Amino acid sequence: MLEARNLAAGFGTIPLFQNVSLRLEAGRILGLWGRSGAGKTTLGRVLAGLHPPTAGEVLLDGSPLLPKGVRPVQYLHQNPLLAMNPRWRIGRILAEAGRPDPHLARACGIEPDWLSRYPHELSGGQVQRISILRALTVRPRYLVADEITAPLDPASQARLWHALRDIASARRIGVLAISHDQALLDRICCLGQVQVS
């Protein structure tokens, strides 16, 4: 179980949120919503071990997250291009995380010809699928999906979330779905929602 206990975080002396607690079980999807600037992204980064909390703790099965090594909680950016070297081809970007499972690549909707392309040569939805496959290649136990379908059209959103829900269910991966779109979270979440305000 991924658990946040009384988390607080911010930047410098500016607090974004305080006393946030939540629990996420393996194989479940929990929605996190709130207005812009409420600290949703920062909370996601804290849960993934990418931003230090100013108070509280993040636990994985009752133990603190380790600061080094392959992270059991992977963070998926709203803009996946920020997490990719623009000078590398997609094949190299994926190989950085290890050898992707071909079945998983198919489940993510990855086309073989994408591997020889650069990130800027793919659509936003295609690049996000690459980002998801790369995160899944390290066999995480949890994913923090930060507004991953915000720039996509509704049909692309549905396809991407359908694929991610199926993969998470089959592999027992917990997903924290961050969005400002409460209707989207109503459609994809099986565990409920938490609001940051």
From TrEMBL:
<dbReference type="InterPro" id="IPR027417">
    <property type="entry name" value="P-loop_NTPase"/>
</dbReference>
<dbReference type="GO" id="GO:0016887">
    <property type="term" value="F:ATP hydrolysis activity"/>
</dbReference>
<dbReference type="InterPro" id="IPR050319">
    <property type="entry name" value="ABC_transp_ATP-bind"/>
</dbReference>
<dbReference type="GO" id="GO:0055085">
    <property type="term" value="P:transmembrane transport"/>
</dbReference>
<keyword id="KW-0614">Plasmid</keyword>
<keyword id="KW-0067">ATP-binding</keyword>
<dbReference type="InterPro" id="IPR003439">
    <property type="entry name" value="ABC_transporter-like_ATP-bd"/>
</dbReference>
<feature type="domain" description="ABC transporter">
    <location>
        <begin position="2"/>
        <end position="196"/>
    </location>
</feature>
<dbReference type="Pfam" id="PF00005">
    <property type="entry name" value="ABC_tran"/>
</dbReference>
<dbReference type="GO" id="GO:0005524">
    <property type="term" value="F:ATP binding"/>
</dbReference>
<keyword id="KW-0547">Nucleotide-binding</keyword>
<dbReference type="InterPro" id="IPR003593">
    <property type="entry name" value="AAA+_ATPase"/>
</dbReference>
<keyword id="KW-0813">Transport</keyword>
<protein>
    <submittedName>
        <fullName>ATP-binding cassette domain-containing protein</fullName>
    </submittedName>
</protein>
